[in-house]
Amino acid sequence: MSLKKYYSGSGSRQLQQDYMTSIVENGLQDQALPTFVRLKFPPGVVGLLVAALMAATMSSIDSGIHSVTTAIVVDFRDRLFPKLRPATDAGEMRIARIILVIVGALAVGLACFVGELGDVFAVAKKTTAAFGGPLLAVFIVGLFMPRATWLGVLLGTFAGAAITVWQMDAHSDWFSLWFWPIGFFSAIGLVCDFVICW
């Protein structure tokens, strides 16, 4: 609310309006809040806000890296390759730390290319829309379709995600929320096909 009020002022606020217009015209919406903070907050509060943002970012990143590492160890290694499980807890911890470092290095490496993708919020919305619908389909199938097999669910989910990405490429002007039902229903339909045919 304060950003809207700040950038929609009149008279002496013409400079802010011109700056906001230039931000929108150049596709730099990500800079509205940092500019507001830089121009209107006292120095100590700016530092506090930056520290809070850094803490929140680090918390989100480490939670994601730990979740991916846990999924790799529990869902893939333990289920698909149980013979690779170490005999001791120390060995288990060593393997988990190695995977954690690899996933962290991949995350840092991929983060270097995020700027080239464009607006971070648009990319995040499209990524969530592409995979959120099929992932919701996995949970719904798990709850209500006892005949579903893991292979049918896996193929249906990836096919649903592929259909969603294809539709996103074909209809880039659509609002990203519309791709959720496309992914969900295409994944559900494909899983049902696999269940009925197999």
Overall radius of gyration: 23 Å
Query: Mean pLDDT, rounded to whole units?
Result: 79
How are helices and strands ordered from N to C? HHHHHHHH
Based on Cα principal axes, name the global outline.
flat
Structural class label: mainly alpha
Number of helical runs?
8
- The share of residues in helices is over 70%
Throw out a few tags for this protein:
198 residues; mainly alpha
Overview of this protein structure:
The chain has 198 residues and is mostly helical. It has a domain at 118-198. Helix content is 77%, strand content 0%. It has eight helices and no strands. The chain has helices at 2-7, 14-25, 32-40, 43-80, 89-111, 120-144, 150-170, 179-197. Helix 4 crosses helix 5 (89-111), helix 6 runs antiparallel to helix 7 and helix 7 packs antiparallel against helix 8. The chain is flat. The mean pLDDT is 79.
Quick overview of this protein structure:
The protein has 198 residues and is an all-alpha fold. The protein has 8 helices and no strands.
Topology:
Blueprint: H1 2-7, H2 14-25, H3 32-40, H4 43-80, H5 89-111, H6 120-144, H7 150-170, H8 179-197
Helix pairs in contact: 4-5, 6-7, 6-8, 7-8
